[in-house]
Amino acid sequence: MDGTGTALGGGDARADGAADPFAWLEDIHGADALDWVRARNTETEAWLQDGPAGPAGGYEALVDSLQEVLEAEDRIPGVVKRGPHYYNFWRDAEHPKGVWRRTEWASYLTDEPEWETLLDVDALAAREGVDWVYAGVQMLRPALREPYERALVKLSPDGGDAVRIREFDVVRRAFVPAEDGGFDFEVAKSRVSWAGPDAVYLASDFGPGSLTRSSYARTVRQVRRGHDVAAAPEVFAVDPGHVLAAVVHDQTPGFERTLAIDMVDFHHSRTHLLRPAADGREEWVRVDVPEDVRVDAHREWLVFAPRTDWWLADGTVVPAGSLAVAGLEAFLAGDPGVTVVFRPDARTALQGYSFTRDYLVLAVLEDVASAVFAADPAAGWSLTRLDTGAEFEAVSVAAVDDEDPERPNDVWVTRSGFLTPTTLLRGVLDPAEPDPAAGDDESARGVEIVALSPVKAAGSHFETAGLRVEQHFATSDDGTRVPYFQVGPARLAADGQNPVLMTGYGGFQTSLTPSYSAAVGRGWLTRRDGAGRTGVYVVANIRGGGEYGPEWHRAALKEKRHRAYEDFAAIARDLIGRGVTSPQRLGATGRSNGGLLMGNMVTGYPELFAAVSCGVPLLDMRRYTRLSAGHSWIAEYGDPDVPEEWDFVRTFSPLHRVDDVPPGTRFPATLIWTATSDDRVGPVQARKMYAKLAERGAEHLRYHEDMEGGHAGAADQRQAARMLAMSYEFLWRHAAAPVLATR
């Protein structure tokens, strides 16, 4: 592989020793391969267009309906506060590629804020003849009380992970020309951090030897304004077998520091701080913790999140899944002084944290239900539960701006549920009224959230009357209770005839929590089949995710990967056993690692499903480490080039499991979709899986590959609407209206 994800050389021989007949599909941009892609796309699009019109108007009407909600004006414009301004990136029908813009607080509170457009990506794309896709900005923190003036804007030419990075003048609303010393870095899988007003730390592709085997940057250079990148000095580097190198400069006034991260694999890293050396120069000093302890720095604190139990020198343990803190200077000097702020139990898991100036706020899951806590460092870090949410809603909390001179302890609170549109609130963390029983004990002082009030509320875009959210638990093959959410009619007939759509992920300690999706509502929950039944939507919280912390994740790592698939199948059986649905009415969808999950449902549990939608998937686990960024996931799946690891990796490699399926087995109707420009997983595995299933004579098999959109699968809202509509339509026709599916 090269750094762009283009396959170099032929494919491996098959397990039976024969040449791989589909190796030619690995030539991602080859003429023959792209002709094959276009032919498959034409077949799938013709099938979609040829479907029944029905009362909703058919596939194109569904695309229009989903685009309408994706571009709805009553979406909440999420903002980031920098100085007095609130910055937002926004896509709508007028600006499909989007605009980067800003407003002020008083205006943001109104129903129609006055936005100042900083960068119109549609206009830029038209002017430069490149289909730019916005990928984010990084602003230069000015001197205290000075305005923000400069930013580094990331733009992808095709929606992939590789981006061009250009310096932008926020005041002039224009890119800084190269002749004026403006930073402009070529398209690559780059990471960048301001090192001051006239320098940046750049991790990128600098030529031979500068990339890891995962296709990310191995080295970091400090690039000064007006200097040649090729001559810039290297400041940090990692082993080519590691995932990536990055250097980040913390610009917090009074706490400026530079950190380097050596990402050893997806779950292990080493953090270094740039410190004065004895000879007056600077050197990297490693933060002395185990590699599976994630390290963060905030003001005077180091923050630790261990994945396994961390034993300190004095014999105390910092539990896996906890959050702990220590004074930065004292810790580096050899005096740990580690305080455990949050300790999980069998039902809880830490989901995230954020600092205001004076407080730490935590988002926690309790049996996949949200809870929020706050701690006061001045009061001994004791946790106080905050009242911010409701049953079956996901709640996230983040500091607004811990450097705001007037409101440094403000927090955003975002709430969302399956049937409840997202609401954005703002409140203030304050000391709680003292408990009289605590006397003068400062360590007993709690925290409360005051003045919590709605700021924005998204509109409702599908009918929720008569629908209900429930949580159930299925028993997996090894006896583990696995939770799942079921969204559907409150009066559900338990006769096995309800069309059900399951989704899951089960990897990388990622949790699936309740969230409002108008696309799910319109694409599944409110559609009616020929008998007038609406769809049921199920979210599976299988092992491999983070719903119960690191242990839930580790339970499905490497040789235990099958546990995730057993969990998903157990939920499917539970739905069937409870009379919610039947195999003829059950569909499933997943993407990326969730696409690997779907591939294992197709090849391992075909009897349970009527239809499967498999998006931007991993499927060839023999070669995944050599395709795009696959090498970076060895810690999750195992290394197929190590014989004893290939022995278990093969058991969840869908491309190879096809050979294990007995002749005559009915495969579920299967849609495989991907993007040519996906430089993270890549389209190769999807192409070969389709070809392999077609060779086996699988019926109702469809394939679609967009040319752009990257791993997200879409570069704008119209493309996103088509991608979603294609998946929902395919699943609906096969699971809810099977008589119509063959038309």
From TrEMBL:
Coiled coil: none annotated. The keyword Hydrolase applies. Gene3D superfamilies: alpha/beta hydrolase, Prolyl oligopeptidase, N-terminal domain. Keywords: Hydrolase, Protease, Serine protease. Pfam families: Peptidase_S9, Peptidase_S9_N. SUPFAM superfamilies: alpha/beta-Hydrolases (SSF53474), Peptidase/esterase 'gauge' domain (SSF50993). The keyword Cell wall biogenesis/degradation does not apply. Residues 18-426 form the Peptidase S9A N-terminal domain. Residues 533-735 form the Peptidase S9 prolyl oligopeptidase catalytic domain. This is Prolyl oligopeptidase family serine peptidase. It comes from Zhihengliuella alba.
